[in-house]
Each structure stands twice: as structure tokens, then as C-alpha cells.
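Troubleshooting entry. The earlier prediction with pyridoxal-5'-phosphate gave an output that would not parse, so I re-checked the input for stray whitespace and re-submitted. Clean input:
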Amino acid sequence: MDILQHALEQTERENLLRRLVDYIPRDAVHADSEGRQYLMMAANNYLGLTHHPRVRQAAASASLTYGTGSGGSRLTTGNHLLYRQLETALAAFKGTEAALLFNTGYMANVGIISSLVGKGDVIFSDELNHASIIDGCRLSRGRTVVYSHSNMSQLAELLTNTACSGRRLIVTDGVFSMDGDIARLDDIVQLARKADALVMVDDAHATGVIGPGGRGTAASFGLEGQVHISMGTLSKSLGSEGGYAAGSQVLIDYLINKARSFIFSTALAPATTAAGLAALNILSEQPELVDQLMVNAAFLRKELNQAGFDTCGSTTAILPVMAGDAALAVEFAHLMKKEGIIVSAIRPPTVPAGASRLRVTVSAAHSQAELTKVSQAICTIGRQLGVI
Ligand SMILES: *Cc1c(COP(=O)(O)O)cnc(C)c1O
């Protein structure tokens, strides 16, 4: 255990040690174990649906009616009718033939990529893709070629010059999780057509956020149905948990048979599934939630940009506030918390060295007064720390 202790001490010296902090969430306000209240500006709960009365009610009713656990994997005894209902709704929402639920977005990425790609195949992956995509690539045993962030001429060159006897897959975050910018999906789809490659888009931060009705990245480019694999999660804007793949019926039948993270894990709890379905229904009925989210994000972004902060080309609900140094980012977040506002300090390995930052996330449920308070606190503390 000494070796582990040394490794932790080294991590602490680099200002990269992470600790768990307990919070008690109540609506948009979070309290710590001493009862002090905070405004949450770090959650991915973009539409505020984790506390929507209908979503809560759906989870509670499902538990009372069907019990708390599914009791088995989908391919054995756990295939409750609720999953089918949610999958049908997800496929309709994404404009695809079919969809398949996984237990988390992480498991979806790992399962999809490792089953589609094998020895002799090549994956082309954006350097800023989410860790779960990276882990899926590692598990696949295919070759992974990383291209610089959204660098389309480099991707074109790599597609031309990389020898490959098998399948080719281009995989990208739709909305990048730390920078909040959007992948150049129109270019990617065109390049993929020329190179006869499959395209996979991770819509974790795009679902409920971009595109008409919050339908995600492909919809925002008018490319619905033209992406081979749309992946997403119910854990962000959809107030619940669970990942999904959406695409053709053949793709879904293939994943049911080959994706190990789908096959060898117990199906989601009825409450989780029902909550996801209720949230998806609310999003379909109230697309104005997405408009409100965009208004809120644009307001805070403009305030920060006017004060001189670089928000890294974000056009979504994720606003990076660059600090550079890891210790500075941690201090920034600490001072924000003293002001009653929770933001995350993001450090390596989540972001590259020297690119540490606050990751501020906006929700449709934030009020203008709350966002003004946040912007004033960021500006005051940012000046104090010499970040702007
Ligand atoms: C959060 C996230 C995931 C993982 O989703 P979970 O449901 O939280 O496991 C996958 N991809 C991206 C881009 C994410 O931000």
C-alpha cells in the first residue's frame, strides 16, 4: 500500500489530487453536510429535469408498481416492457429506425466501439473526445488514429494515408464536454462518404441542448438519419441515467448480440427507465425549454466575454473559463464556493496540461438574477487572481 500512498502524494504535489465532496441536492439549490446552500453551476442537468414533478412521479410510480431492481440482464429475464417504450421514443426523437439502451453513456461508448471495431480496423478519433470513447477504442483492439481537435484537413489526410484492410470508424463528441464547442459534422459526414467510413457521434451534451427540439448534433446540421451511430445519455439533460445507441435496425440487432457492456450487465432499474421516458416526453412537449437554455447560456457567455474571459469557442451550455494552471483553477473554484456558487475546477488528465479551467454549466432553470450573480463573482475573483 506504500506504493499507492506515494502515488497519491505525488498527485497532490501536482495539484491534481481529487476528493469526494458530499452534497444534498434540492431543486436547483445544493446544500453541504452543514446545511450551507449553494447555487449549482457545475451540473449537466441542463433542463432542470432531475427535479421535475412528472419525472419524480414517474420514477416513484415505476418503483411502486414494478419493484426497485430489474433482476437480470436484458437477454435473460430483465427485459421489461418499459425499455422497449423508452427505446421506441428515443428512436423517434433521433429520427432513426431503432435504439438500444445501455446502463450508462460510458458503457454505451465502450460497448458500441469495442463491438464495431476489431483487429485490422481503424478508428479516427478527435483528440478531445470523452474518456469513455478513448476507453472503447482501447478495448476494441483496432488501431486508433487521433486527429487534432476538429482539424478537418488533417482528418482528410489521415483517411487517405492510413492503410486499412477492414472497417473505418470516425468517432467524435457532438458537443465537446470540456470546451462546449460543436464538432464539424457536415465535413465529417462528407469525408466519411468519400472514405467509406462509419460515423459515430456522442450526443451526451447535445441532447436537449442543440438542434431543433434539442434533438442533437445531426439534427442541428440537418443530417438526421445520416450518421451511422448516434450515441447519447439520459444522465445529462434528461434527468436520469442510462446510455443509448440510435441507428438502423441492423446496427441495434448487432449490438444486442455483440456489445459486451450490454450483454453482461443487469438492466436499468424500472424507476430510472421511467424517469428517462418521462423526461424525454417533457422535452418533446416543451421544446421551449431548449430555447430558454440557449438564452441563459448566451447571456452568461456574453457577460464573460465582455469582461475579457476566453470561453474557447463554446456555443452551448458548457462555458469554460480558462485559468491555465491547475492550482489556480482549484483556487478559483474554492473562492467561488465561498461566494455560494459551485463550479468545477477541471484539471489534467481531463484536459491537457496548461489548460486547467473552471467548467461552468448553465441550466434552463437558472434565473437571470442567478446568472448575473455568477458572472459578477467570476469577474471579481478572476481579476483578483489575475486570470483576466
Ligand atoms: C458524460 C459523458 C459520457 C458518459 O455518460 P454517462 O451516462 O454519464 O456514463 C459519455 N460521453 C460524453 C461526451 C460525456 O460527457
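This one parsed fine. The pocket of pyridoxal-5'-phosphate is lined by residues 104-106, 109, 130, 132, 173, 177, 202, 204-205, 233, 235, 243 (CB under 6 Å).
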